[in-house]
Amino acid sequence: MINASYPHTRLRRNRHDSFTRRLVAENRLHVDDLIWPIFVCDGHNQKQPVKAMPGVMRVSLDNVVEHVRPAVELGIPAIALFPVTPLSLRQSDGKEALNPNNLICQAARLLKEAFPELGLIGDVALDPYTDHGHDGLVQNGHILNDETVAILTQQAVNQAKAGIDIIAPSDMMDGRVRAIREALDQHGFQTTRIMSYAAKYASAFYGPFRDALGSNALLSGDKKTYQMDASNSDEALREVALDIMEGADMVMVKPGMPYLDIISRVRREFSMPTFAYQVSGEYAMLAMAMQHGLLDRDKTILESLMAFKRAGCNGVLTYFAVEAARLIKEHS
Ligand code: PBG
Question: How far, in Å, is the centroid of ligand 1 from the Cα of 1?
């Protein structure tokens, strides 16, 4: 019998040529794995760079279709929309979230008309609409749960009416997935999917996103009474289990790279369509290092995304989506 250890076994043999490396590759990154988050702002002919996120723009409605076109042409299956709500429309009750002509709804209608095949993901939470920057209603410094859920359900229906295909609640209120599912069904949106931000951590890595939205300066305190504590892992499984029972079609872990262990546990435990959000802070770190020539741009993008595939993700929300899609196309 051949002794299955060195020198008979040499793991380098399979690495010897590109063709064997390709044959034995366990994971592959595909354009279908990519979801592109974009920021929509008001005004005319706006393309405002986000300082903390080199290469990322806030675009006004009149530019949104052209902004998204390259993603569609590359075959990216879905984009996630985030509104930069004008400060004058931000109130303590986040009422602008329910306006059928808010930035998200207008963008959704424009994009559905231009690209009927493109999946549209709508973030459901109040933080882009509140003057205190929290994801829910605040009373005496407390974030109200059930009262917030009542508004989120209306926000979800409002977005579905505008053409959003996937509702993505990012608020971390308890019980919101069930309430949103029921409200969608009652309004005839049985096929509208829910991708829950199931295990979302109270993370410093959201800083650049809050800058992009203009909510950082507004935010009083932190989000630790609703988003998860970084020290917990079993609790993430309980969060995910509840969201699945409440009717989530897909689950997400967020942030991504610092929480790959959670992604891996979630995928193994539930075998659900599992997604990760490579969030703004992860993007900023990588993009800044690339900008300074410290990291090879193309290789780093692909390697950072492959980590999510290895951990068990079906897909990744990433600000690199368009670049990654181009790279994948060039390499195939
Ligand atoms: C809002 C929301 C946040 C992100 C997505 N949806 C920020 C937050 O919870 O404060 C972060 C995305 C990113 O950092 O790229 N509920």
Answer: 57
CA gap 175, 125 in Å, rounded: 13
Q: 145-161: per-residue pLDDT in tens?
A: 999 999 999 999 999 99
Asked whether the predicted pLDDT for residue 193 surpasses 80, the reply is yes
CATH number of the domain within which 217 lies? 3.20.20.70
* The length of the chain, given as a count of residues: 332
The answer to whether residue 312 is domain-embedded is yes
Residue 115 tokens read as 């690209």
282 found inside a domain: yes
For the stretch 228-232, contacts whose Cβ atoms lie closer than 8 Å and that sit 24 or more positions apart, written own/partner, are 228/172, 228/199, 228/200, 228/201, 228/202, 229/201, 229/202, 230/201, 230/202, 230/203, 230/258
Instruction: Tell how far the Cα of 125 is from the centroid of ligand 1, in angstroms.
Output: 9
CA dihedral 109, 157, 250, 125 (to 10 degrees): 90
Which residues participate in catalysis according to the annotation? 200, 254
The answer to whether position 1 is within a domain reads no
Alpha-helical runs (H) found in 162-227: 176-186, 207-213
Does the residue 78 lie in any domain? Answer: yes
Structural domain containing residue 46: 28-331
Count of domains in the chain?
A: 1
The whole-angstrom separation of Cα 59 and Cα 215 is: 17
Q: Are 263 and 309 in contact (CB under 8 A)?
A: no
Whose C-alpha lies nearest to ligand 1, atom 12? Answer: 279
Q: Which amino acid is at 294?
A: L
Strand partners, 278: 318
Mention every residue, 6+ apart, whose C-beta is less than 8 A from residue 319.
36, 37, 53, 55, 56, 278, 280, 283
Residues 6+ positions from 209 with CB-CB distance below 8 Å:
82, 279, 280, 281
Residue 3: pLDDT above 90?
A: no
Closest residue by Cα to atom 16, ligand 1, is 170
